[in-house]
């Protein structure tokens, strides 16, 4: 007698579907979902550019000096990526965990890395959109200058050094509720911004703060992006710090994801 019930071997087939099409579909839907709330996108893009317009442009000693102006624009470009990564990804993950739709998605035969990669990629898209207004204000209202090759190299360096911020945002989202995540992100965002030299050049820091800032991912991102733009060789501590933060936040995000999954679905 032949049974029409699904065989045990049928279940795993759904999980072996090609990951790339699933990733592309999730990425597309996440981008569309974000665009449905235009004010969130506009706010993320406007804040760093307004900071440049209000705090750097009026300071003629900085805005009219090509070296200082370029460093200020790069610092706020890193800040734009960091803010978008921490807020967009951190709050999105935290809010999704509180919705009934998220447990349903996790019950589907979909590799967890596909969803995580799509969330990170979607946030990265809007993070780099936030750079555009900063570059426009810097080009129009300051004496900042960079070659085409330097600009491309700087964007590549910024893309690589933004990974710890994305993973840290995901970690915050999996570790805290949405209300708590907002407070943690705000404290971390301004701490990294000021301590990493994104608002004030590290050369102006007292010695103890300059030493401490070398352990911040924002300082690594700033220095490596600046080195890429200027075509200089980065120092070892910059590379070592960026690698350490990338590996550390990746392990942290993975551990928190599995801990959250174990608490809610076991």
Automatic annotation (TrEMBL):
It is a multi-pass membrane protein. GO terms for cellular component: ATP-binding cassette (ABC) transporter complex. The keyword Transmembrane helix applies. Residues 71-256 form the ABC-2 type transporter transmembrane domain. InterPro entries: ABC2_TM, ABC_2_transport, T7SS_ABC-Transporter. Its main location: membrane. Keywords: Antibiotic resistance, Membrane, Transmembrane, Transmembrane helix. The keyword Transmembrane helix applies. One of its GO terms (molecular function) is ABC-type transporter activity. It comes from the Bacteria. GO terms for biological process: response to antibiotic. This is ABC-2 type transport system permease protein.
């Amino acid at each position: 007698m032949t049974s029409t019930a699904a065989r045990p071997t049928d279940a795993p087939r759904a999980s072996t579907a090609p990951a790339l099409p699933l990733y592309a579909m999730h990425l597309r839907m996440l981008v569309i979902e974000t665009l449905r709330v235009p004010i969130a996108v506009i706010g993320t893009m406007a804040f760093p550019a307004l900071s440049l317009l209000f705090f750097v442009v009026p300071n003629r000693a900085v805005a009219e000096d090509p070296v200082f102006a370029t460093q200020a624009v790069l610092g706020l470009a890193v800040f734009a990526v960091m803010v978008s990564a921490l807020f967009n990804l951190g709050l999105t993950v935290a809010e999704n965990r509180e919705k009934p739709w998220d447990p349903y998605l996790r019950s589907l035969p979909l590799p967890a890395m596909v969803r995580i990669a799509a969330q990170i990629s979607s946030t990265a898209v809007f993070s780099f959109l936030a750079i555009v207004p900063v570059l426009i204000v810097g080009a129009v209202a300051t004496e900042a200058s960079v070659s085409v090759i330097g600009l491309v190299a700087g964007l590549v360096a910024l893309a690589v050094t933004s990974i710890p911020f994305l993973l840290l945002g995901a970690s915050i989202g999996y570790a805290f509720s949405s209300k708590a995540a907002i407070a943690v992100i705000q404290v971390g965002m301004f701490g990294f911004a000021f301590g990493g030299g994104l608002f004030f050049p590290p050369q102006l820091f007292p010695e103890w703060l300059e030493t401490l800032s070398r352990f911040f991912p924002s300082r690594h991102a700033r220095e490596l992006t600046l080195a890429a733009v200027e075509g200089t060789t980065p120092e070892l501590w910059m590379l070592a710090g960026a690698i350490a933060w990338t590996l550390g936040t990746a392990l942290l995000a993975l551990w928190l994801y599995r801990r959250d999954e174990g608490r809610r679905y076991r």
